[in-house]
Each structure stands twice: as structure tokens, then as C-alpha cells.
Amino acid sequence: MSEERRLAVLRAIVQDYVETSEPVGSKSLLDRHQLGVSAATVRNDMAALEEEGLIAAPHTSAGRVPTDAGYRLFVDRLSSVKPMTGAERAAIAQFLEGAVDLDDVVDRTVRLLASLTRQVAVMQYPSLTRSNVRHIEFVAMGPTRLMVVLIVNTGRVEQRIIETTHDLSTKEGEATLGLVRAKVNALTLGQRLVDAATSLASLADEFEPADRDLVRAIVQSLEDALVEEREERVVLAGTANLARVGTDFPLSIGPVLEALEQHVVLLKLLGTARETSDMVSVRIGHENPFAGLQSTSVVSTEYGSGSELVAGLGVLGPTRMDYPTTMASVRAVATYVSRILAQ
Amino acid sequence: MSEERRLAVLRAIVQDYVETSEPVGSKSLLDRHQLGVSAATVRNDMAALEEEGLIAAPHTSAGRVPTDAGYRLFVDRLSSVKPMTGAERAAIAQFLEGAVDLDDVVDRTVRLLASLTRQVAVMQYPSLTRSNVRHIEFVAMGPTRLMVVLIVNTGRVEQRIIETTHDLSTKEGEATLGLVRAKVNALTLGQRLVDAATSLASLADEFEPADRDLVRAIVQSLEDALVEEREERVVLAGTANLARVGTDFPLSIGPVLEALEQHVVLLKLLGTARETSDMVSVRIGHENPFAGLQSTSVVSTEYGSGSELVAGLGVLGPTRMDYPTTMASVRAVATYVSRILAQ
DNA sequence: ACTTGGCACTCGCTGAGCCTGAGTGCCAGC
DNA sequence: GCTGGCACTCAGGCTCAGCGAGTGCCAAGT
């Protein structure tokens, strides 16, 4: 009973089950794969695989179905990411090139990923905390109201309005504001936002005491932009693909839809990506920490402009999923969207 | 065979069917309502109602189910919007009061509406085209790059960057920019965006010929903000409620999910609200122009700050829906969110 | 020690047949 | 125009038998 053949049997089971959605038996396995052995031998191997917890039978006298552990082994050792054809790559690149701004890039990316994989696509907006500063601008909105505009290298723009005790409409007020603008930009240009905040921490000391509270308020508002978790927006596409799996989906899709609405859950999913060799993370069934997603798998990766990885994207689907192809799509889309954002 | 009694029978059928999700027969109708007549009489009335196309039998020897026309009549003439209790109103107001900014208001509103109605809630972002101008600011981003920031009365902020042939870093450039800023704000403050664009149309003529192309570019970018349909964002909540209807839902939820992803479809739904006496629009089943939504109903209304109605919100659910309660919820939420936005 | 053919057994699925009961339509009488 | 009565219909649920894919195990072969 050779180890290699048993794994070949597991691979064949996974492939057939993904394709047909039906428990696969020893006989039908032989029809579709050249294993070079008899059905009885395959049965023995399957019994051993079941013993190891890699496959399971829904009931006696039915075929076998891979368990979560079986998929895990398949992904880790029995498959490789399926390379995409040049035509596919070109189509992806071309579709993403057409985007006019950041919102459009994100929108196109999720839709593309959903249609490529025919599953639910999830994409996190480029994260502020890991992006870096391109420009910071201050706009007086009234005597004591100031708008702070923060532009980061991914094209995202954040603004917030702060109230000051200073009168900014006076000549002195304007001069102070100009000085703050110059110093802040000099200190932060090109820095990661998290570093920019620390760079600014002692900025107030460089100003005259009368101006310090204004400077502190500005620094505070920039720090706010950092910690504001709520701004970690997530975009979805392809939820209709959940309905497509229809009857063969073990659980109803209700809990899944609920989980998808909790954006904080999705952010956690994308955020806690496991380190793997090719950068694509796969979480299968129960590996998933959230109830309601226990019969789904998540394939995700990070993307970002330049060498900085700034956020996650991925797809979610039934554990019975074509992992090699899905992983290829996720990786390719992440690569191209990163390239677009770098421009 | 009095007309009133026949309508009373229709009302009773709608109410029972909404409550039980099962075709209602003459006998069970008598058990639950005091109609003061015998089952045979009710049967005669039901036969007449069926003749009129207001109810239908899924098959012989089953009870009757209201048709779309039956619901229509019920909504128009047999029901009134159910008043909400003070406690409910207070809870709505309190929940919405907690919002910290516009995004949060929208987010809380859809979630609230979804949980109140236990259906899918849809809300359009306050529309730029019908909002009015609070402030327009120009920020030089570099020698030939200018950022235009538009702030409207709903708190929404739009920005876009334009390239100019002018060198804005010179003294003259700054002076021109200052002049433009002053004139633009003077011309547009408080105006509806659509009017503001026309006000600005001839602005370029007031400037020296050398500056006119700059002014034209700025005006152009503001007009862009108007027509940009893509910016008409729509937010969803409660899609998981679609799964809850489960088996008794005639069609699969796939087509519905697909329609929900097409934001342009949702915008059309919210945009083409019918005029009704109490401002709440109801579209039932086939009245709905979109395939895939033909077995759903949409209850929607407009909301907005002050006297201006700026956008739509509503819910979508199966045609078998508790219309009076749903209409009450939609109306109440629209009222309160309008109040919040007016602040 | 592993593989193979054979064989008995299991058990979910399917379809036919039957029954039940809710519901209807119609009619004759009030 | 309302009512009670009656015959009729038909979807849904139930049982039951047959089928067949699939298994586990065993004895024989290499």
C-alpha cells in the first residue's frame, strides 16, 4: 500500500468531487483516472484515507467526500496554482486599466474577481494605516473651522473638520496656518501614516505657545484618521453566486449572508491571512473562526502599491471549490490591481 | 352579494396569507374573522374575487392567494399605514442620533430599516444633484495641479484633481485662484448644485482672457461632479433576510441577489417612485420593471434635509408582505433621517 | 506483503399505490 | 341573496418494494 498511490487517490477524489458535486466511489474513480490498479485496491486505500480523517462517507454505501483536512492536504501538497493563460492575464489587465479613480478600481476589481471565480469576492479598501502620505492640506472653512485633507499614495482622500479656538481669518492666523502646512508636509511627505503620526508628535513644541493648541488639534485629527477602524471599508461582489450552489450546499446561505454583512468579520478574514509560500492564503471550513462560515473556504491575499502591501482581497465559496484555479485568479487579480495602484 | 363584504373578504385573505404564508380557505377564514356569514357565502365571494383577478388558487382544492392586483387593491383602498407607537419612534430617533458622520448615518439607517422590517433595506446616498452648496475650496497641489473640494449641505464632500496649463505657484497664479475662489463661492453659496452649474457657466467671461481656460476647467470639473451617475451610491442591508423566507419563496433568491448587485437597478427603483397620497410608494410584483424582481415588492420613499428631498430609501421583500407595517417603518425612518440630516 | 476478483450486504433513492383532508363548486331550500 | 348539504378534486404524506451504487471482507494469486 504505497503512500504515493494513496495520495493520488485523494487527489482524484478531490478533483472528481469538485467537478461533479457528488460523492465519488471506487468504480467511478477508475473510470475517470488511470490509476493502474483495481477497484478493490482503491477501496482499501479509501478505507485508509478515511481512517486518517481525510475523507468521509456521508452515509454507508455512498461514495466518499473530502473532509476539511483532506482539502487542506490537497492544497498544501497535492496541487499547484494553475497558471493562467496569457489571454486571461491580458483580459484582466485591460479590464482594470479602464478604471477612472480609486473607487472605480475597487469596484472593477471585486466584480472581476467574482466573475472569474464565480464566487463571492471581497476586497478591502487600501488601508490608510499602511499607506504613505502624499500631501496634507489645510483649508479654513470659517473663522474657527478648519478642514484637514489627507491624500495618500493610493489615491484615497480623507478629510475632517475641526473646530479651533484660533481665529484663522486674521493675518496672523493665516500666517500660522501657512507655517503649519509647510512644516507638516516637510515632516511627513512619503512617510507611512503610522510613522507620520509619531513624527508630528513633538511638532507643537516648535511653535509659539499661543499657537500650540492649534497645532495639537491638527495632529490629533491626523491621529484620529489612523485609528479610525470604521474607515476600513470592505466591498463585496458576486453574492448571487451563493444561490447558484443551490441544493448541494449543506447549510442554507442565510448565515453566510449574515456574516458577509458584518464587515468587521470580513476585515478579520482578510487581515489574518496565513503566511504561505506563494502568498495566497487559504482557510478551509472549520479553520475559519466564524460560525456561519464553517462550511465555506476563504482564499485571500494581500495587495498594494509598490513594495508596500496595504490591504487584502479574496474570495469566499463552498469548501468544495476548485482551489488551484481560484488561487490563480486571486493571485493574478492582486498582482494587477497592485500594478494599477502603483501608478 | 354586497360589494363591501367582498372587499372585507379580500382584506381578510390578505391579512391571513401574510401571517400564515399558506393559501387561505373559506373555513379557516371564518375561524379567524367575524364576517357574520356562512362559509358558503364566503365561497361565493371568493369565486367572484377570483373572477375579478384579485385572488387565485395555486391549484384546485387549495385555498386562495392574493394576486398582485389583489395586493394593489389592498394597499390602495383596504389598509392604512399602521401608526407607530411612541416607544418605537423614540427608539428610531435615539439610534439615529448616535451617528457621528454622514457615512454613519447612512449605515445606521439601512441597518435599522432592515431590522425593523426584517427585509432588505436600500438607501441612496444623499444626491449631489439635488443638494445645495455649502462651500467650494481650491487647493494647489503643485505648479499645475489643482484640487477642487466641494462641500454640500448634507455633509458630503467631493474632491477631484485637475491639471491646468497655468502655473499656480506664481504670485499671479495665487491671486487668480483667490479671485476665482471668492467669485465662485459668492455665486453658488446655498444654491442647488444643478443651479450652481448654470450660475457658473458665464463666469469665465468675467476674467481676463489669459485666465479663462483655468476658470473653464474648474467649472467643467464641477459640472462633472453633477453628471457623474456612478457617484450615486447605494447602500444595502439585510440581504440575509432573503434567506429567511426560505422554502415558501416561489423563486430562488438568485435573481434577486443579482438585481441587488446592480446598483443602477436599485437607483432606478428608488428614483422612479410613484406619487401617492402619503408619499410612500409601493410597487408590487409585476409592477416592477425588472426581471428577477417580479415576485418582490418595493416600498420606498424620499428623504432629505430641510424642505429639499434629495434621495430615496426603501425596502424590498416578497410580495407577501405586511404592507401597512412596512410602510409605517419606511415612512418613520425617512422622517427621522431627514431630521438628522437637516442638522 | 500487497493486490485482486468475488460475494454478500447496506442503505439511500425512486416511483407506484393508497389514504386523508382541506377545500371547492353547485344545488335546492329558505 | 344567503345557507346547509353533498359530491368531487387533488396535493401531500405515507408505506413498500425494487434498484443500484457502493462498501467491507475474504480467500486466492503474485
UniProtKB/TrEMBL annotation, chains A, B:
<dbReference type="GO" id="GO:0045892">
    <property type="term" value="P:negative regulation of DNA-templated transcription"/>
</dbReference>
<dbReference type="InterPro" id="IPR036388">
    <property type="entry name" value="WH-like_DNA-bd_sf"/>
</dbReference>
<dbReference type="Pfam" id="PF01628">
    <property type="entry name" value="HrcA"/>
</dbReference>
<keyword id="KW-0678">Repressor</keyword>
<keyword id="KW-0804">Transcription</keyword>
<protein>
    <recommendedName>
        <fullName>Heat-inducible transcription repressor HrcA</fullName>
    </recommendedName>
</protein>
<comment type="function">
    <text>Negative regulator of class I heat shock genes (grpE-dnaK-dnaJ and groELS operons). Prevents heat-shock induction of these operons.</text>
</comment>
<keyword id="KW-0346">Stress response</keyword>
<keyword id="KW-0805">Transcription regulation</keyword>
<dbReference type="InterPro" id="IPR023120">
    <property type="entry name" value="WHTH_transcript_rep_HrcA_IDD"/>
</dbReference>
<dbReference type="GO" id="GO:0003677">
    <property type="term" value="F:DNA binding"/>
</dbReference>
<comment type="similarity">
    <text>Belongs to the HrcA family.</text>
</comment>
<dbReference type="InterPro" id="IPR021153">
    <property type="entry name" value="HrcA_C"/>
</dbReference>
<dbReference type="InterPro" id="IPR029016">
    <property type="entry name" value="GAF-like_dom_sf"/>
</dbReference>
<dbReference type="InterPro" id="IPR036390">
    <property type="entry name" value="WH_DNA-bd_sf"/>
</dbReference>
<dbReference type="InterPro" id="IPR002571">
    <property type="entry name" value="HrcA"/>
</dbReference>
<feature type="domain" description="Heat-inducible transcription repressor HrcA C-terminal">
    <location>
        <begin position="103"/>
        <end position="327"/>
    </location>
</feature>
